[in-house]
Amino acid sequence: MRFEDILDTTFSLYRKHFSLFLGLVVFSILSELGSHLLANFSQFFFHRSPLLGIAIVLIAMTFFVIGIGGIVIGSCATYLCENVTIRSVLQRTMDRFWPLLGCLLLWLLVVTALTVTVIGIPFAIYFAVRWGFFIQTIMFEKPVITIALGRSGELVKPMWWRVFGMLLAILLLSTVVHAVIEISIGFILVATNLVSEVDFIDILEWGLFGVPFEGVTPFFHTISIVIHLAVYAISFPIWIIGITLLYFNQRIRIDGFDIEMQVPQPNTDENSLG
To answer: What is the pLDDT of residues 101-111, one digit of tens each?
Structure first.
């Protein structure tokens, strides 16, 4: 598929199965909410209640793994024309929870360690892209953790620059969608005088760069988090669906993967009776 075909299919799947992806992204929203709690109340958690802080980190990580794994499974299933429900997708996700968690932690460990020095940043980018399909390989091909990273490398290495460009484009697209919706809502709130603590510049910085509002009331701060989470629920699946389709595209190019063979076929006996 060409890049425009991947984008077209991404939005087509998202539109046709919106309720499925909306149900699955709830887990990612809960993970994002946990991150906000840690960021906003870090002093409390790490000085007064460190155990509660650790518990929130573990819960947020668990929800993140379930959410992202579920969206990947949902993307695979809908792309291959399978009839799935939120429950069936979550069951398949939980079957691969521990391998996905282990692979995610290993990926984060290597990429984060390489970014410690300036010299290591190019290597961090290289391996982040090379192993960029580890979630899809873990969830769809079901290898062990180390083989999943190597398998992703097999799909990316022959076309690293192409995959890098397409991953970056998909990321930028989902980021732009998020920013446009968030800024539009913020502008409406300011223009209608529903909020008085911030101006248009504050809204732009918030939507484009994630700059937190300063000197606002707790109520408005809560409203801004709710808006962010709602927009996140809309934009985040775009990123995951796009990567999953790119994964299939690489399998077709590298392995000669036959999509039609994976699509459930109608019962031949029933067809012959008809």
So the answer is: 999 999 999 99
- pLDDT over 70 (residue 151): yes
25 CB-near residues (< 8 Å, 6+ apart): 67, 71, 233, 236, 237
CA distances, 66 to each of 29, 87, 206 (Å): 11, 12, 28
Decide: 152 and 137 in contact? Cβ < 8 Å.
yes
Q: Is the pLDDT of residue 267 over 60?
A: no
Return the closest-CA partner of residue 73 out of 87, 62, 61. Answer: 87
Domain of 119? 3-251
Residue 218 forms part of a structural domain: yes
Is residue 86 included in any domain, yes or no? yes
What pLDDT, in 10s, does the model give residues 1-21? 788 999 999 999 999 999 999
**By C-alpha distance, which of 29, 17, 11, 135 is closest to 74?**
17
The residue with greater pLDDT, 216 or 220, is: 220
Distance CA(230)–CA(106), nearest Å, equals 30
Domain count along the chain: 1
Helix/strand/coil for 273: helix
**Contact, 67 vs 27, CB < 8 A?**
yes
Given a contact cutoff of 8 angstroms between Cβ atoms, the answer to whether 139 and 69 are in contact is: yes
Residue 259 lies in a domain: no
160-191 vs 121-130: helix crossing angle, rounded to 10: 100
Provide the whole-model pTM.
0.87
Q: What is the rounded distance in angstroms from the CA atom of residue 19 to the CA atom of residue 33? A: 21
Asked if the structure places residue 36 within a domain, the reply is yes
